[in-house]
Each structure stands twice: as structure tokens, then as C-alpha cells.
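Intended use. Records like the one below are meant for learning the mapping from a protein sequence to its folded structure. Do not use them to infer anything beyond what is encoded.
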Amino acid sequence: MKFLKSACMALVMLLTFAACSKSTDKPATVSIEGIWTGKYGTGNNKPSSFYSFNIKANGVIEELDANGAVKGKGTWKLDNNKILMANYNYLPPANTEYSVIGAFNPQEGRILGNWGYGESVTDGGSWEMTKK
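Structure written out for the chain above:
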């Protein structure tokens, strides 16, 4: 009986100690691929208009409208796992070309950037997105 009591006390102490130990898990990170939603602004205006991308693993990027329909398509790359660069065109009949650059933060699941017309990434405005 004395052995059983000692064994139970040891087990309780072990469980208590284990429950109080610090976690060494790394924070979860978000992949760049997937659906991203947020807002864009024109010029120096704060982002306030709907903006969304479907960033695909094969280097294809699509701009999506608020209903999820594709309205533009192009290519993207990630430089040093931190900077998203993309160039895309609206689908016909518009065919307008846009370029974007953004700082990708995988720990926060967020991208902050600038957009522009044609190959410029600075003459349009700013944008921000989080992963859906």
C-alpha cells in the first residue's frame, strides 16, 4: 500500500511538472500559395477597395473579384522567401497590365505592398492582404 501511495504521488508530481514546462514549438507559418483578400488604395489614399489574389504553386497569380471570379491572370515569384513580385493582365476585353510588389510575413499571414500600371510597382498605390 505504501508503494502504491508513493507511485501515485510521483505520477502526480511528474504530470504537474510536465504541464508547467514551456513549449518550444515554433509559431505557425503561412504558405504564400492560396487565396488572399484585402484592400488596395490609389495614390496616397489608405487601402479601402476590395482586392484579392489566388497565388498558385506553379507561379500563376490570379486577381479575383469579390465573388471569387478571375478577372486577371499573370505570373509571380517570391524573392528570398519575403518579397512577392507579380505581373498580371486583366482578362479581355480590358487587357490592362499591372505589377505588384509586397513584403510577405509568413508568421502573421500578411502581405503589405505597392502596385502600379504596366511594369511599374510604384505609380498606382498601396495594398494589403491576409490569407483567407
